[in-house]
TrEMBL record:
Protein name as it appears in the record: Tat pathway signal protein
């Protein structure tokens, strides 16, 4: 097959994916010299010295007496069991007194005196449940790696879903070479430990007690090569036959819809403020949906206004509402979205005083029940009530009916402060059969003690029956008066309605009421100004923040504020956050960007993958926020932006490579999100995910239904066909019921209706069995995904290198028979050194610091005796950052310090060579790897070839 034809077949691999730029385009040779400034750093393992099939240095068969004796095994709190495929194994049990540490296994095993030694554990993939806890490796009494997001992770982290049902899986960790240098054996130990709560604020909450027996441990191996290949008689299991999930079915959509419709009715009819912005967003959206009781409901605008008033007062009392609430980095921007969603319906209420304002009339249109008013009968008898069938504006008025005689009405429930000067008081009055001097507005003044000053100041409406009439009284505040009450009264038989009262203070009054337009603008402006000066770096945070900035500014525009930037500038922050333009970081108060990562750092790679600092699995799943970006900018009250929409679709499609075939928790066919090679992931396997996974703010069908891209629609339809969309929706429905989850599910019925009726492009997820082979590479993230027949390889070559170049790569390999391997391995790198180094500290929990949290460097120390890190003292060289990047001290996290210019990683039958530069050619050799095939071009490569790699390209070779 010619190279041209092969490339054409690659472009068909995922129906339209090539348009997004994610399929690697190889071929051609550039002429350029390698930089003389680059440092070559060989990984400490044998990264290509012999073919796949190399056996272990040593094998410890747990539960086998002879093997255990030969290795001097000692154990505590451990039982021998018969496990998967009737194989002997051990479990580690919980301590008698509840605690974080459980049973232990200790043995002496062979190691390599030169180069690398790896330790691999064999585990049964059908076991699931976070209560299985974790397994931690120790060598020579020192802990190997870190508990949370370290470059070398625990030996096992159990999660709710089984990792590899029906089969064994293997996880591999490297040992520090200083620990094995010159030795032929090494003391290893495995300890059971409890779960970890990654976001806990205290050590007590962070470390969970062991809850029961650990995951069953079958074998430990030591080996020299990064890839572990078990012996022929070492059982691995058989990939179960995948079948379609039969239930739940589409009835879950009806169940969800019933819940959100009930909540919409409840929110529309509530008479107290709703201070949760998620629910205000929920109600505002529900008011535009014909299926809900909130649709065009005249009660919704006043309820939204009442609630935004409450949010305003809450913010004034506690500014952390803007910085530390469940809105995360959006601040109060969601309030802007609510204003946009309600549109003109809120306009009549914007220039009224905020409910609870100490000055001015509260609830002058009786929109908020009878808040601010009290009824009174001065003589005779009659009824005073709120009427929602007659009103001048809004949806209510005050109604007074007197059958025969009497004086009945309402007065303000509190005395309102007044200045000296001339005020104008007004009311709109409608009458039916009212006598002369019957319906009136009455103004009464009081001194500081509440004593009446003077007498009534009444202004009457015309007698008889008439429509709305405006009556006003212009009055000078008496010299001894400091307060005023307003009343609306009817004297004599008939009916009168009162609405839209006003109280206009003289210019310069110290008692001007807080008006909604100004109050809401203040909180939106404060939010915008704070967050533009605290624009976060991680992509997911930057996107959420940019949405808040954009919505806050659009809300300011909706309120007519002179402080509003306008569409172009507000949208620029969104463009920065999604990588359409460089991210310039937090701004100074005068608007000058600080550029902490220079002037050319993009939050998203050219291939469409977010940077957090490298590839992130769950945290890189941004579809829910991309949906809100689309919604915020081009959706609710927005304008079309084809450039932004196409880019958001590109980002969503780039993630589709990172779904691999698997079985769900019940053994049915599924596609799972790749998390094993994720920088910010600590749960394996990843969630079931097709177009979009189950999130607080997103569900399986949401983005596809919103943007209506043909490929995304087809991926969503694939999840429906596999029965997984309904399970995902059920999982979403099963989350804690909250404003956030109800908002997420509000559109479910409409989303499902669209996906069910749409045809899409017919594309299937790229890693779906039977789909064409391909190679995906993202040089900016050091990331590779390969499909070769039914074999899948993911590799993160730039792997958790926060401080400096650590020479480590992370791989996840799913063999043709379904056997899974995951490993952290040494590799060869080249980089331009900046002359500094960082020495790994003696930390065992985190490998990083968190400046904005009250948590010690390296995280909380674990319970029990002090532990020491096996990698402590490892010296990491720092790579050179671009010239315009301000220097960060060694030991401060940086997206540049650990990024190499060139990576050469060998894992089993694969050799990956990646050039991450934009201006230099790198050469590499296949010597020691063997004859191979270039999986991009199909070309055959000899066993001693010298290859040139153009800037920004990757080659993946597979040994023949």
């Amino acid at each position: 097959m010619s190279e041209t034809i092969h490339r054409r077949s690659l472009l068909k691999a995922a129906a339209g994916a090539a348009a997004t730029g994610w399929l690697w385009q190889g071929g051609g040779h550039a002429r350029a010299a390698e930089s003389a400034d680059e440092t070559v750093s060989a990984g400490t393992g044998a990264t290509g010295s012999r073919p796949v099939g190399t056996g272990p240095l040593d094998t410890l068969v747990l539960g086998d007496g002879a093997s255990e004796r030969a290795h001097g095994l000692t154990s505590t709190l451990s039982d021998v069991v018969t496990g998967g495929l009737d194989q002997a194994a051990r479990v580690l049990n919980a301590p008698e007194t509840p605690g974080f540490w459980g049973g232990t296994l200790a043995a002496t095993m062979a190691c390599s005196p030169k180069g690398a030694t790896y330790v691999t554990v064999k585990l049964w993939g059908s076991e699931g449940g976070a209560d299985l806890g974790r397994l931690q490796l120790f060598a020579e009494g020192k802990q190997v790696g870190h508990y949370h997001l370290g470059a070398v992770d625990p030996l096992d982290i159990a999660s709710d879903d089984p990792r590899s049902p029906g089969r064994f899986f293997f996880h591999t960790l490297p040992l520090p070479t200083d620990l094995t240098k010159g030795k032929k054996s090494i003391a290893l130990e495995v300890r059971a430990m409890g779960r970890i709560a990654g976001y806990a604020a205290t050590a007590e909450a962070y470390y969970k007690n062991v809850e029961g027996p650990s995951r069953t441990i079958y074998r430990l191996y030591t080996h020299h090569e990064p890839h572990f290949d078990p012996a022929d008689d070492d059982l691995t299991g058989t990939l179960p036959t995948a079948t379609t999930r039969p239930s739940p079915g589409s009835e879950i959509v009806d169940t969800i819809n019933a819940r959100v419709l009930a909540r919409a009715a409840s929110e529309a009819s509530r008479t107290s403020p709703q201070l949760d912005l998620w629910y205000l967003d929920f109600l505002a959206r529900a008011s535009t949906m014909p299926s809900t009781a909130a649709y065009r409901n005249i009660a919704v605008p006043p309820q939204i206004a009442r609630s935004l008033d409450g949010v305003y007062w809450r913010y004034l009392a506690d500014s952390t509402v803007m910085t530390g609430s469940s809105q995360q980095w959006m601040g109060l921007g969601r309030a802007g979205l609510v204003l946009l969603a309600l549109g003109d319906a809120l306009e009549p209420l914007l220039d009224e005083p905020v409910l609870g304002s100490p000055y001015g009339l509260s609830n002058p249109g009786f929109e908020f029940g009878m808040t601010g008013w009290k009824s009174a009968t001065w003589s005779g008898s009659g009824t005073a009530s709120r009427d929602t069938s007659v009103y001048r504006t809004g949806h209510a008025s005050a109604k007074v009916t007197i059958p025969v005689s009497g004086t009945v009405g309402y007065s303000t429930s509190a005395k309102l402060p007044v200045d000296q000067g001339t005020y104008t008081y007004g009311a709109w009055i409608k009458t039916d059969g009212v006598g002369t001097s019957g319906a009136c507005l009455d103004v009464l003044f009081h001194d500081a003690n509440g004593t009446l000053v003077g007498t009534d100041n009444k202004v009457h409406a015309a007698a008889g029956t008439h429509d709305w009439e405006h009556v006003t009284a212009t009055l000078v505040t008496p010299a001894t008066a400091t307060q005023v009450t307003l009343g609306v009264r009817l004297s004599g038989a008939g009916t009168a309605w009162f609405d839209d009262l006003t109280m206009t203070a003289p210019s310069g009054s110290a008692y001007a009421p807080v008006v909604r337009r100004a109050a809401w603008a203040k909180m939106l402006l404060d939010s915008r100004e704070y967050w533009r000066q605290n624009f976060p770096q991680y992509t997911n945070q930057a996107i959420i923040c940019a949405i808040g900035l954009c919505l806050a500014d659009r809300g300011l525009s909706r309120l007519g504020s002179d402080a509003a930037w306008g569409e172009k500038k507000a949208r620029d922050y969104v463009y920065q956050s999604v990588g359409l333009v460089p991210w310039l970081g937090p701004e100074k108060a005068d608007g000058t960007p600080t550029k902490p990562l220079g002037g050319s750092y993009h939050q998203v790679t050219k291939k469409g993958i977010s940077k957090e600092l490298g590839y992130a699995g769950s945290y890189g799943e941004l579809q829910e926020w991309l949906s809100l970006v689309y919604d915020a900018v081009t959706g609710i009250g927005g304008v079309e932006d084809g450039t932004l929409r196409d880019h958001l679709v590109k980002m969503a499609k780039a993630r589709m490579v990172f779904r691999h075939p698997a079985l769900d928790r019940d053994g049915y066919r599924a596609m799972r999100l790749e998390t094993v090679v994720g920088w910010r992931d600590s749960e394996y396997p990843g969630k079931v995910a097709y177009d979009e996974d189950t999130k607080w703010d997103g569900h399986a069908l949401k983005m596809a239904a919103l943007v209506k891209d043909p490929d995304l629609t087809s991926y969503a339809r694939q999840s429906v066909a596999d029965g997984q969309a309904f399970q995902s929706l059920k999982d979403s429905h099963g989350m804690t019921v909250s404003a956030r989850t109800n908002l997420n599910l509000l559109s479910t019925a409409d989303d499902y209706a669209y996906i069910s009726g749409a045809t899409g492009s017919g594309a299937r997820l790229p890693m779906t069995p039977g789909s064409p082979d391909f190679v995906f590479s993202d040089e900016e993230n050091g990331l590779v995904a390969v499909k070769h027949g039914e074999e899948i390889l993911y590799a993160s070559l730039y792997w958790r290198a926060r401080w400096g170049v650590n020479r480590l790569a992370r791989v996840h390999h799913i063999g043709a028979g379904g056997v899974e391997r995951s490993a952290t391995v040494w590799q060869d790198v080249r980089f331009v050194a900046d002359g500094r180094t960082f020495t790994e500290p003696d930390w065992v929990n985190w490998e990083f610091t968190v400046d904005d949290l009250d948590i010690p460097d390296g995280g909380f120390a674990p319970p029990g005796d002090a532990l020491h890190q096996a990698f402590a003292g490892q010296v990491l060289p720092l790579a050179e950052a671009p010239a315009d990047v301000p220097e960060r001290a060694a030991g401060v996290e940086s997206p540049y310090a650990g990024r190499a210019s060139f990576y050469r990683c060998v894992y089993g039958p694969y050799l990956i060579a990646m050039n991450t530069t934009v201006d230099r050619v790198h050469t590499f050799t296949t010597k020691g790897f063997g004859a191979s095939t270039n999986l991009v071009t199909g070309a055959r490569v000899s066993e001693n070839a010298q290859l040139r790699l153009r800037p920004g390209t990757t080659v993946v070779l597979r040994r023949r």
